């Protein structure tokens, strides 16, 4: 059964991005991906996205900078930031203050996006 949830995965690491997409698709999500925050900002179909899962550390615009821009374009869009290491307390606090749904360490489970999206709906 396919989920109605459409997820945008943003990661500059092609291997991580493709593995994340594959895991989410196998879990039944509709997934699109982008290699950078700049690519996301060029997307025409951003309105059809229900959740953004973005790496924090990327060349060019970071995940936190992407979050800031997404907040101005689509304020209610849940954004889950992921990091390869332990989230730094300062970065976590800033991202949450800017409206991130959560910061999770890679790898995360396939249930994480739905749980975070549902939580964002309840909180919002």
In short:
With 124 residues, the protein is an alpha/beta fold. The chain is 41% helix and 19% strand. The protein contains five helices and five strands, in the order E-H-E-H-E-H-E-H-E-H.
What does this structure look like?
- This protein is α/β, with parallel strands linked by helices and 124 residues long.
- The chain contains 5 helices and 5 strands.
- The chain has helices at 14-26, 37-42, 63-73, 89-97, 112-123, and strands at 6-10, 30-34, 51-55, 79-83, 102-105.
- A 5-stranded parallel sheet has the order 2-1-3-4-5, with helices on both faces.
Poorly predicted regions: none
What is the helix content?
Answer: 40-55%
CATH class: Alpha Beta
Give Rg in angstroms: 13 Å
Please summarize the sheet with the most strands: 5 strands, parallel
* SSE succession: EHEHEHEHEH
Derived from helix and strand composition plus strand pairing, the structural class reads alpha/beta
Q: How many structural domains does the protein architecture include?
A: 1
Sequence of strands across the biggest β-sheet: 2-1-3-4-5
Tally of helical runs: 5
Number of strands: 5
Q: Tell me what portion of residues adopts beta-strand conformation.
A: 15-25%
List keywords for this structure.
124 residues; Rossmann fold; five-stranded parallel sheet; 5 strands; globular
List the helices and strands and how they pair.
Blueprint: E1 6-10, H1 14-26, E2 30-34, H2 37-42, E3 51-55, H3 63-73, E4 79-83, H4 89-97, E5 102-105, H5 112-123
